[in-house]
Task: inverse folding
């Protein structure tokens, strides 16, 4: 898919004398990388620098001049200097009047300054047309040409024509410009490259915490308990048996946690009788990370599926099979097929497969390119209807598989419930409350509230 | 991926006094939700309403005025009222002259009116610049900020500048505007949110019908027949055995149905000697839903793969394995490896794996973001060459697996053929005809026809 | 997802008399297909042709006139003739002055002419506004309406307004215009449809070569050697056993080859003490196809996973299991669980599962729509951190599984090492060198170099 970059290279020789000159202020790393790339794409580049001594760091084909002379040679000036040095541009205001200034700066922290660097620049030089661009691209990637990741360059600015000029340069460099509107979007664009999966943090920490808890819980009950009371060393359960007990539990709980905030929201709206009041902050945040919770649940479910499928390949499993058959042989009798068992085994497998299938379908639908191709009605149909169906299947799968443990006293080692029992609490609660919520007598007022109706319209007055 | 919405919130405090005022006509649900969101994003909002009594439903920071006064305060007026009340805007024509009117209305049915609401509005107020936007976004999602689904907002309008202004608002709200061209696109945009998977309806109903038929067929032959003649109760086959017989059959038939219309099209073109006549309607529709048929086939194939892989985990399977080994032991003889059997078993598994692998590759290629990155030549290579290869592998997989049943009389319980035999009819027919079509003596005229050549150029005169 | 095309059809009757007339020069295949589609979308179409005799090939509702008369009827003229006949347009220069000329031509070879067809046209007719468009769409697809593949139409041109007009037509035809900037992009756009996976060629040929080599290597060692020295005919190993030996080896080697060029690059930069010199060409090319190598590695890993999971379904496997159990029975003793074996078996399975899981995660992240939604920091985190983790897991998986063969002399049939040993060379080398590179004493200068620092700033002077 890296066609563009190779083509851009191929283009270079034919086009080198047709592009308009671009001026770059500042000979730092990013300024040089951008200059290299622009020269490669056929732009004459002139650098504006304090010292006009030609440094070998600067691309060979570029000219180096003083700031004022360099600025006069081009209509577009790329400001590749740091925000704290922007002040030195004020004396150049007259030269820069009417020019397009491209702010490519990044900060070190989110929301470091009250206003974005680009807006700051626009305030310093009100006569120039400031465009924010290129800050989301990595100098190293520009330099090496290995633009494997996003080729999107966010562009914003108040002057439409200036934005068009910058977007043309972006395109010529083999990148894809994305118009983000007026210069007010600059803060968002400057924050963008500093983020590291902001929406994933809470779901990931929650999952790690829960996983660690359940893993420890299983080690205690399955390995330590067995070792103490049955004198069996099952330490190798750590590799597959216990992960395959933790994964389905995590998948089920996280899937239920995707639908729990919706339940809370419905209850709050019913109680308040209006939708025109904000939810508590924790609920807002929870609702915003439902997609991430769901995808992590899907990851656990996939691991569970694979861990289960490799079971017959385990040395332990083939030893156990052999032992069972040999004990039958030595007792000289063939057991007939246990029909109840066959039914149970086949149903929990079938329920698990169908639940997982719907789960994967939900995952595919949440791919950006797929969800952009469905409208709201379709998205809600898939995520709500199919999602609840998946939750029902997965809960039933767990119930059929682990149901026998509920009543058996042997399931309560050290008076602790089996983790299957723990895993079912939230999903069952969600399903029961959801069932109540879709009863017509409750669904009707809720739908009215969501369509804007209020129980006490004068409430807040 | 929900970064934008969180950022937009973060932006609000800094930007609240820089945006231009927006006027909203109508204080219904969507008007209020949009107003809330705009105030959050820093826009001063003024509502135009019949009664200027301040209702607590309206966002606190918004002003409420009469229609004319409200309109004078803003360059952009969002018309959040229903089409049937548009007439009341005609007296305001003078106030609205030159203003940007944003039509956000939706209808209740597809193509409810001869012309779209936005075009109707433009006819009523020829002096205003009408832009269609926002109708594809859900009020509930705007309100709660949980824009999990598409952030795309389709925008269309005849005035480029007015469209730009509206697109800037869309971006400021954390959404992605998508320019759909002139106001003529409004009808399509108004129909969009009313659809529920229109291209999927026929393929899904077809699959459901066929699945039900084959399921019933298998229940009769595998459970009822066995119960009557062999007195064996295999009712638990319903959970896994029979689904795993129906799924591969469905996958194979649907995959063949993807390539069948292409075969028909080629035959029709060869017969007519021209490509410049429309295909019959049923063929046109069939061709348009090939992608959907293929994806449903892939779903069935995936289910088949998982159902097959869980086989060793079934209580029935381990009982059967045990029984086989024990009977060998009791007869006191070890069977040598049956090489023919080993070859057959390994080849149908290998063929199935390769076929499924190619099938999944086709599925990945049909993801919108992937297919947008390949050109036509590449797309046709994958979908046609690799697609036929997948069909060949899957057909061979079924032939090797089920081939032995063709001749065995026991396969014809109640004189009904085994479903493997039924499943092979269409794929084999497709492959045979395709083989004939790529013979040079037939392929050459077909290619000429597809390049625009006609056998009887004066034919239709 | 083919909603647009159906809607466009639905639109046609309502809009047929509102669109502006479009003129098409040339009545070849593509000209006719485009005309058909435009008439369907409501555009009045007039053809400019040498002979104004009405041919039945031309859409019924279109007018046919001489070139000059046809051009006068429309503001947009689509030039559906071949480049070599562009000269005949020069006499029409006066008529075409100020008109929008849409160049839709394609060449037969990449970079066939020094300048693109569209630029050539613009030079011939400097008074007209040339826009490149439509060349990436297939006539056959336009004709039949089955636009399954990319709906993207690349558009470029120097006149913004002319480009907007053409993009509106593109949208009206149910396609998505993509602005590629000025007319200089025309060469790239003309090359685009001629490519057949250019970035995939080297990785695919490399994989095919290596696969053939390893396949042959395994056939020799596992089938021929066994046949000669042990007189066992294991020819059926060709179907599953040997592919399942080759696939993991290929996956591991290709995954290591993804990270090897980064290692080379780091060493070269450390040696040179600067990042401002181009890498050797082979390294540049290698770095550009890392994504493709990784995806092919993922394909092999997936095949390996499925081949492994079907193992218990093989006739050979159940025969071997039975044989093992029966021999235990006949010896009248039950073997106790071998704990070392249980540990080994479970750990290599668990390592393989985790490695594969991370591998799939990397694959999903490289989907265009996903990678467009992550910033550079996130992309590098996933591809570098998670990628190396996947490599570590997969190497450990192979080491634990195949480790026992290193020392055993029976692994060296015909003095040839087992392929597990071969497969580990590159991954282990990559991991060892990478480990050295992240030692602080080496990582620090490397980071400095990548931030633009130079050891010998006057080096090249």
Result:
């Amino acid at each position: 898919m890296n066609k563009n970059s190779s083509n851009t290279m191929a283009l270079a020789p034919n086009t080198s004398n047709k592009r308009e000159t671009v001026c770059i202020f500042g000979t730092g790393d990013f300024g040089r990388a951008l200059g290299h790339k622009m020269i490669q794409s056929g732009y004459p580049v002139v650098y504006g620098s304090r010292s006009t001594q030609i440094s070998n760091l600067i691309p060979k084909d570029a000219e180096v001049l003083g700031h004022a002379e360099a600025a006069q040679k081009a209509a577009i000036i790329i400001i590749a200097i740091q925000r704290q040095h922007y002040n030195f541009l004020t004396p150049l205001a007259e030269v820069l009047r009417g020019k397009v200034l491209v702010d490519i700066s990044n900060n070190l922290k989110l929301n470091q300054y009250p206003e974005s660097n680009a807006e700051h620049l626009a305030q310093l030089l009100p006569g120039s047309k400031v465009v924010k661009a290129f800050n989301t691209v990595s100098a190293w990637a520009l330099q090496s040409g290995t633009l494997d990741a996003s080729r999107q360059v966010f562009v914003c600015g108040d002057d439409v024509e200036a934005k068009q000029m910058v977007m043309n340069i972006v395109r010529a460099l083999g990148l894809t410009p994305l118009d983000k509107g007026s210069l007010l979007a600059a803060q968002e664009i400057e924050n963008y490259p500093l983020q590291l999966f902001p929406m994933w943090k809470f779901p990931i920490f929650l999952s790690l915490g829960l996983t660690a808890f359940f893993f420890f819980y299983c080690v205690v009950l399955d390995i330590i308990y067995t070792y103490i009371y049955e004198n069996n060393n099952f330490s190798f359960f750590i590799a597959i048996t216990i992960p395959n007990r933790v994964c389905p539990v995590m998948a089920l709980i996280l899937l239920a946690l995707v639908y729990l905030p919706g339940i809370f929201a419905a209850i709050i709206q019913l109680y308040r009788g209006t939708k025109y009041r904000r939810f508590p902050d924790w609920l807002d945040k929870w609702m915003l990370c439902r997609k991430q919770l769901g995808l992590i649940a899907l990851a656990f479910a996939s691991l569970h599926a694979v861990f289960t499928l490799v079971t017959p390949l385990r040395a332990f499993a083939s030893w156990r099979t052999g032992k069972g058959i040999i004990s039958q042989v030595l007792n000289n009798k063939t057991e007939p097929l246990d029909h109840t068992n066959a039914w149970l085994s086949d149903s929990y497998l079938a329920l698990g497969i169908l639940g997982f299938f719907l789960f994967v379908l939900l995952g595919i639908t949440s791919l950006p390119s797929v969800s952009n191709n469905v409208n709201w009605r379709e998205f809600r149909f898939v995520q709500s209807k199919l999602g609840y169906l998946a939750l029902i299947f997965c809960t039933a799968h767990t119930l059929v598989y682990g149901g026998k443990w509920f009543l058996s006293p042997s399931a309560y080692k050290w008076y602790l419930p089996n983790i299957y029992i723990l895993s079912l609490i939230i999903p069952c609660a969600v399903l029961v409350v959801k069932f109540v919520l879709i009863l017509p007598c409750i669904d009707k007022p809720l739908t009215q509230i969501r369509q804007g109706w209020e129980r006490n319209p004068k409430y807040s007055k």
Summary: Residues 376-407 of chain A form the longest helix (32 residues). Chain A touches chain B through 83 residues (CB under 8 Å). The mean pLDDT of chain A is 85. Residues 200-459 of chain A form one domain.
